[in-house]
TrEMBL record, chain A:
Belongs to the GatC family. It catalyses: L-aspartyl-tRNA(Asn) + L-glutamine + ATP + H2O = L-asparaginyl-tRNA(Asn) + L-glutamate + ADP + phosphate + 2 H(+); L-glutamyl-tRNA(Gln) + L-glutamine + ATP + H2O = L-glutaminyl-tRNA(Gln) + L-glutamate + ADP + phosphate + H(+). Residues 70-98 are annotated as: Disordered. It holds the Pfam family GatC. Gene3D superfamilies: Glu-tRNAGln amidotransferase C subunit, N-terminal domain. This is Aspartyl/glutamyl-tRNA(Asn/Gln) amidotransferase subunit C. Keywords: ATP-binding, Ligase, Nucleotide-binding, Protein biosynthesis. The lineage of its organism: Bacteria, Bacillati, Actinomycetota, Actinomycetes, Kitasatosporales. Allows the formation of correctly charged Asn-tRNA(Asn) or Gln-tRNA(Gln) through the transamidation of misacylated Asp-tRNA(Asn) or Glu-tRNA(Gln) in organisms which lack either or both of asparaginyl-tRNA or glutaminyl-tRNA synthetases. The reaction takes place in the presence of glutamine and ATP through an activated phospho-Asp-tRNA(Asn) or phospho-Glu-tRNA(Gln). Its EC number is 6.3.5.-. Heterotrimer of A, B and C subunits. It is an enzyme of class 6 (ligase). It comes from Streptomyces virginiae.
Amino acid sequence: MPGITREEVVHLARLARLELSSNELDHFAGQLDDIIGAVARVSEVADQDVPPTSHPLPLTNVMRADEVRPSLTPEQALSGAPAQEQQRFKVPQILGED
Amino acid sequence: MVDIIKLTAAETAEKIASGELTAVEVTEAHLARIDATDEKVHAFLHVDREGALAQARAVDAKRAAGEKLGPLAGVPLALKDIFTTVGVPTTVGSKILEGWIPPYDATLTRKLKEADVVILGKTNMDEFAMGSSTENSAYGPTGNPWDLTRIPGGSGGGSAAALAAFQAPLAIGTDTGGSIRQPAAVTGTVGVKPTYGGVSRYGMVAFSSSLDQGGPCARTVLDAALLHEVIAGHDPLDSTSIDAPVPPVVEAARNGSVAGMRVGVVKQFAGEGYQAGVVQRFNESVELLKELGAEIVELDCPSFDLAMAAYYLIAPSECSSNLARFDAMRYGLRVGDDGTRSAEDVTALTREAGFGDEVKRRVILGTYALSSGYYDAYYGSAQKVRTLISQDFEKSFEQVDVIVSPTTPTTAFAIGERTDDPLAMYLADLCTIPTNLAGNSAMSLPCGLAPEDGLPVGLQIIAPAMKDDRLYKVGAAVEAAFVARWGHPLLEEAPSL
Amino acid sequence: MTTFTELLSYEDALASYDPVMGLEVHVELGTRTKMFCGCSTELGGEPNSQTCPTCLGLPGSLPVVNAIGVESAIKIGLALNCEIAEWCRFARKNYFYPDMPKNFQTSQYDEPIAFNGYLDVQLEDGEIFRVEIERAHMEEDTGKSLHVGGATGRIHGASHSLLDYNRAGIPLIEIVTKPIEGAGERAPEVAKAYVAELRELIKALGVSEARMDKGQMRCDVNLSLRPHGTKEFGTRSETKNVNSLRSVERAARFEIQRHAAVLSSGGSIVQETRHFHEEDGSTTAGRIKDNAEDYRYFPEPDLVPVAPAREWVEELRTGLPEMPRVRRNRLREEWGVSEHDMQSILNAGAVDSIVATIEEGADSAAARKWWMGELARNANEQGVVVDELPITPAQVARVAALVAAGDLNDKLARQVIEGVLAGEGTPDEVVEKRGLKVVSDEGALGAAVDEAIAGNAAIADKIRGGKIAAVGALVGAVMKTTRGQADAARVKELILERLGVSEG
Ligand SMILES: [Mg+2]
Ligand SMILES: [Zn+2]
């Protein structure tokens, strides 16, 4: 299993929206390489014919009735907002599009 | 005169119910203890003096009005700062949520309030519950009351330290890879990770959704059971909550016994990395179980060797997604919004400034493990390991009623010792992680002090899913036998602060 | 910001290339509450008044699946002839965007609830074209951003944005076709007919009003060209949020012409999203979709799998309403209209409106006349479907009733409709406000008739002499003095009566 390069960490940090400093990149790249080296052991079972477990409980079909519950008030909803305007969350200019 | 802070929760509740003590007296005694000791211990991030006293007064008023009180009414509790609390800051040990005051209560918070438990405040923790030492808190480390230069375990080090420092008889923790049990072990207290789905996660800030589980922390097995009963049960707001009666934990704790039980010892929970004194106390515990009438069965769980690796793929993967919401848009920290920067840049700058190193490491690791080229090899394989671990547990529980192991391979290590060696830090959870991956229940309780350093050693008891009562039945028996042998509870030996 | 785009003529484009389309339609369900929380989905609430910890993505909050959301998804899947998964899960689609509170969308990935279906659509000439369905899956909508500081309210040039999360978490069903091949020059028509048919189906199921003007149904048009005779797909463009039937057709057509121009001049198509512009039917470049885009899907750990019991699925199948195409055939016979006319009614999106108007008491010819005449013209001008116009079937039926009773003539009725559409109130209110009632006061009408006869003696004589056709001129004169508010038939009767002639 390949380790992780500094370039990959740069790419991952961008995906994860972390503005890492150059020092951090160096530091993390080394540590992450060690960690990935250690956890890559799991691929020992990659060929084994066992189902993956994404969840420890064998539950299915947990659903709620389509009934309205009280919402927060707009004041409560906005109570933690770093900035607000016109009862909306005010955010810096959005560059991209979804 | 009784020393209020030394009472157990059960005793405290009884004295409040009988009128021997008022809830306000009890609360004031604990607030005073916090005032006197928390500068050294730093168990609390926020003490809610007013809220606690108001709740205490309400309990006293209820009693005065002749209303029936619940089994923990008026008993103070230290709440891990990962549960939302209306009007009280919730930081999850992170700068990114500094000053955030939630507009809603976690289900667990609500249940505590409804049970008239007095919430003293919010306790310190590793940032977003990622860590085993509470050193990853953005607000500074917590000291272990047994030796303030040592870690109190993590991530729930604040809750465990509050118990060991007699700042509260009850506390709440959360356990994703051992964050209740490992702090309990290294502080000489009791901690239980209930069956996954046994305690609602609604309002508990998510680290790794499929592993996280809130649970009780206390100084005695019975107190833990009383708290367990208050916080457990089905919650329609948590889709992963089990819709079944809570196992009879209090009854089990009152009727401790291991006579006739089969107790498993897993051979993978031993070997290199286990401190001699830990192994010694564990072996003595196994001998004690035999003396108390249990049959010991050796078990082989080969998949447990891969548990750590699987855990450090699954937990970071889920956390990389769970923590994406901390983006400076709706709540929490916002950095760099100078009117020219874009939302994208502000998000990245805020996350850089607001998250600590361990969080960043795990977010990047998880982003990596989930990316398309690596998903099968890492996340996919880790989930297969999870299946194998569950199968090993299943096979084991066909042969035994409970499994025992050391809770941690070593006693509390020194603050700063492992901070820049993540892999060494991760070893602290070697014995606790398999239970989180499989979703069953486990407890840690004190089994003595390691001779070489005089620090507490934890005994882990593991039970099948929804058989949490077995933990209490066995735990209560072991606790009674040890206390009888020692002549007093282990915490009596802790230095006074 | 429309940039000049070189186009090839449609005929030349089709002469060299074969279009392949993929259509992705998002339908907002009409559930009372959001997909994963109990907040109301009601439209028009104050900003951020329909939010809770879950749909705001507050720390600690958790989702719980809306049962009606799942039921609606299964109904849609069944109506689209899909297989319904025995077991499926939600997945997280991870990407950052400020209108998405958790920075992941709770969606479905490799385990959609419905898959492998088809929808037969009828083209203008009656030909049936089968569109294969890849999947229909459940997900959630995002919040709404208001871009402030820019000249146009658009994202570009804005100084900041304001977010309202009332729409965040509204249940969506995403319906994805398999690549649509073999439509040739009719590809744009197929696209439009497919979306029209799908919309009829959604409405028939009662799972959504599917109003495209309100964003309850939105279509992404993916399109690529390949040279005739080749099998491999070309690079595709993804035109996002094409929000009317007419626009779907125009977007497909535009992209065919644009792709062809690029390809035939030796260029290559960039895989990107495109924005559609209603004003001129063009598209402009959006975001480049390189393959580095990585949503890091994984099973949503906060939700448990959905495993619809077969009995439930069969029960839902049994309860499905008559499918729109079958229903249209039945209605066509009942109303006695041609295939072609029925197709026009469908394309105008008027089937349900006409049915509803008939149910409100209008006769079928009148209902068709108003919806396919005045209202269809109006809708077309505005680029919406008729039932998205601000007039209800009951109001149209009322207009028809007023005409039938002789209170309005056609001309006045058109003015009443115009008034209703302009928001002046109900038909009766418009009649009242605009004073549009037919003059039925026999005294007043009689005086106008007498005046017309007196003022046009020569014509009156002709009529007396048997030239009944000349009556039109007198009727015209009466209509003029009554400013069109008289019932022309009654006027004619009165004139003939006064002149002592009867219609042969
Ligand atoms: Mg989608
Ligand atoms: Zn909500």
